[in-house]
Automatic annotation (TrEMBL):
Keyword ATP-binding applies: no
Pfam families (alphabetical): Rieske (PF00355)
Limits of the Rieske domain: 12-106
SUPFAM superfamilies: ISP domain
Name of the featured protein: Rieske domain-containing protein
Record flagged with keyword Oxidoreductase: no
UniProt keywords, alphabetically: 2Fe-2S, Iron, Iron-sulfur, Metal-binding
The organism of origin for this protein: Blastococcus jejuensis
Length: 108
């Protein structure tokens, strides 16, 4: 059993889906954890840690496409799938997120 298997998560309601314009992200606090939630133009939802591990950039203000999130400060790109940097440097935490009756629910 890995360490990851031992981690427990909590489902936290953080806001309404319509609070996030298509193609953008917004910062929330979920269970005491600062996160950024994104609603891509294809309607998919993603959640990451709020601060970039490089120098604390506000990831909620980053540019998005279907594959990556780009930090607004120094343009490091992070994959939605696993949070890894496309440059092989830092990685960000990613969290499961879903919509339930218009409410954003994040597992932290
Ligand atoms: S703070 Fe995000 S890339 Fe530098």
């Amino acid at each position: 059993m890995s360490v990851t298997d031992l981690r427990t998560t909590t489902a936290v309601r953080v806001g309404r889906v319509e609070e996030i314009p298509l193609g953008e992200g917004r910062a929330f606090v979920a269970g005491g954890v600062q996160i950024a939630v994104f609603r891509l133009r294809d309607g998919s939802l993603h959640a990451t840690q709020a601060a970039c591990p490089h120098a604390g950039g506000p990831l909620a203000d980053g540019q998005t496409d279907v594959d990556v999130l780009v930090c607004p400060l120094h343009q490091y790109a992070y994959r939605w799938s696993d949070g890894a940097s496309t440059a092989g440097a830092f990685a960000i935490g990613v969290y499961p997120v879903r919509e339930e009756d218009g409410t954003l629910v994040v597992e932290v």
